[in-house]
Amino acid sequence: MTNTISKNYNCIIVEDEPIAAEILENFVSKDPELHLVGKCADAVYASSLLSIHDVDLMFLDLHLPVVKGFDFLRKIKNPPFVIVTTAYHQYAVEGYELDIADYLMKPIPYDRFQTAVGKFKHLIEAEEALLEVAERDYIFISSGKKQIKIILQDIFYIESLREYINIHTKMETLTFKMPISKMEENLNPKMFVRIHKSYIVSRSKIEVKSASIIQVNGKKLPVGRTFKPTLEL
């Protein structure tokens, strides 16, 4: 008997029209892999849901009261995947610039909803496969269709630049589209330490250490206040 791991993706609905919200909730309930953790009618409540729950997917209406959908989305740090729902065509270009998973026009047919959710699942599964720890001494990171092998001992430090990271190694600097938190999860804490919201350093490469600065490969990096206790261990 083979065990299949059933996937469970947390989602929220941000929609101020009750009928549209009800239709989406009904569609979500038909997909056993989608788990609705909350629905709300405005950006303030949506922010609260995102802080309470680990959300994978957000169905976001653009015409919300007070704060509009895209303005809200721009303010979210590490946003979940987003499927936009709207009655207006003119926002499509702006949506794709914000890396929207898909764009649903109201009224939403069920088969079109299924297509959008299929796109989301493909994207999230690709992200989950992004970091594959093969052995203790190296890591594979996907870049487009290529898998790039990085020897962990070659890494000096990792730097976050918004949704990208730069991995500074002995040979070169490599850039990947990935949050630094995702990289941190996959590194051995005995080898690497987060010193700042924007930096992870190799413990063995630290040359100078003080309360406010870490020097690695001649580069002085700031120590974030909240990360100081970790460094003292």
What class, by secondary structure content? alpha/beta
The figure for the number of domains is 2
Shape estimate: elongated
The assigned CATH architecture of the largest domain is 3-Layer(aba) Sandwich
The count of β-strands is: 16
CATH class of the largest domain: Alpha Beta
Q: Share of helix among residues?
A: 25-40%
CATH topology of the largest domain: Rossmann fold
What letter string, H or E per element, gives the SSE order? EHEHEHEHEHEEEEEEHEEEEEH
Annotation field: number of helices: 7
Distance between the termini: 46 Å
Oligomer kind: single chain
The share of residues in extended strands comes to 35-45%
Question: What is the CATH homology-level superfamily of the largest domain?
Answer: Response regulator
Task: Describe this structure as you would to a colleague.
With 233 residues, this protein is α/β, with parallel strands linked by helices. The chain has two domains: 9-128, Response regulator (Rossmann fold, 3-Layer(aba) Sandwich), CATH 3.40.50; 132-232, Beta Barrel (OB fold (Dihydrolipoamide Acetyltransferase, E2P)), CATH 2.40.50.1020. Helices cover 28% and strands 36% of the residues. It is built from seven helices and 16 strands. It has helices at 18-29, 43-52, 69-75, 92-97, 110-128, 180-185, 228-232; strands spanning 9-14, 34-40, 57-61, 81-86, 102-105, 131-135, 138-143, 146-151, 155-161, 164-169, 173-177, 192-196, 199-202, 206-209, 213-216, 219-222. The longest helix is centred in the middle third of the chain and has 19 residues, at 110-128. The model has no long low-confidence stretch (mean pLDDT 86).
